[in-house]
């Protein structure tokens, strides 16, 4: 596989950008080798600058549930761009997308658009503190909620990939009120509430963890979080930036029938363009300026191009057959990967929830960050490189989720399973 032009571009990029990239996991340091520079995407495929074609299971880290360059999304962006790229003023597109989101997630009685998942989670926690008058927040080990200072404590995703327990530059005072417990450990949460319940403003959780790899909640875990927060007057925040429209058309809150007080969204609702949103109970959201005293603003919030792309995406997802087929193909992929690993004598666990999946190189149960980080990352790196040679582009980290789109057909999935059969043979037994 010729990657000479990608290598040349990476050399140039390293002179401009820290590590040669604009987001850490893209550097391939967790899997070895050098990153590919992408020229274009179409459907289920990526094409790099050297002309190589790959089946894409990253899909811009989740947003592209309809695949690359979906005609409806491209048409919506093009038509909107001809009328202006940014207004800094309200537009009808914001109302249309807001109503579409509410149709899928009625728990969001009011919402506000922002420009990233980090903005959404950061602001939701500020709002929780304003509403409750309390200062402490609870998060879970290995759950990543963006790169705001108060949340970079035992985070997953890129922080885990680079082996950084926290991040230099985060003042001690910024995380003094952030309490951290293991994911899926309700006894630890109960102990935390017994000691600090009257000071806790909110519990924020990825209802299905996606930033330590895909790790589902154990039975009763989310229900217990809902009970504890209600009893103690704290808010429950579901970070559905990744899981929204990915584990269920109505998000994890619909899949598990849990009603959080606040929800954060991103990725899919922007159709591939930068976006975030937070929303929830009306009485809480009315504290946001200008209705209330909690300040938050954004020059590009509600950007018309993003709104148009999001509307086109969610309009397509209103057809249940589209989402159900993506989930079915994800299940087929997971089953095929398991079978291929068994045939090759390789120990793996494949986790799948909805249209998300992760292949862990271990035979031990994975329920939280402590167990996830025991997976053999060297084997994952070897598997990643072998799959790349087979024309399959996976997440360049053991601790990330993979995604499917409406273009990942039976033929595409079968090709991937065949590639995995070859790739597993390269893993040391």
Structural account:
- Helix content is 38%, strand content 14%.
- It is built from 15 helices and 14 strands.
- Helix 14 packs across helix 15.
- The radius of gyration is 21 Å and the shape is globular.
Strand residues, percent? 5-15%
Helix content: 25-40%
Number of helices: 15
Shape: globular
* Number of separate strands: 14
Weakly predicted, low-confidence segments: 158-165
Strand order across the largest sheet: 4-10-9-8-7-5-6
Overall SS class: alpha/beta
The average pLDDT score comes to 94
Largest sheet: 7 strands, mixed
Amino- and carboxy-terminal Cα gap: 26 Å
Radius of gyration from CA coordinates: 21 Å
State the order of secondary-structure elements, H for helix, E for strand: HEEEHHEHEHHEHEHEHEEHHHEEHHEEH
Question: Can I get a quick summary?
Answer:
The protein is of the alpha/beta class. The protein has helices at 4-13, 71-81, 92-104, 117-132, 157-161, 172-175, 186-196, 221-232, 251-255, 282-285, 304-317, 320-344, 369-372, 377-389, 410-424, and strands at 38-42, 45-48, 53-56, 110-114, 136-140, 178-181, 200-205, 235-239, 262-266, 276-280, 349-353, 356-360, 392-393, 402-403.
Give the secondary structure arrangement, pairings included.
Elements: H1 4-13, E1 38-42, E2 45-48, E3 53-56, H2 71-81, H3 92-104, E4 110-114, H4 117-132, E5 136-140, H5 157-161, H6 172-175, E6 178-181, H7 186-196, E7 200-205, H8 221-232, E8 235-239, H9 251-255, E9 262-266, E10 276-280, H10 282-285, H11 304-317, H12 320-344, E11 349-353, E12 356-360, H13 369-372, H14 377-389, E13 392-393, E14 402-403, H15 410-424
Helix pairs in contact: 2-11, 3-11, 7-8, 12-15, 14-15
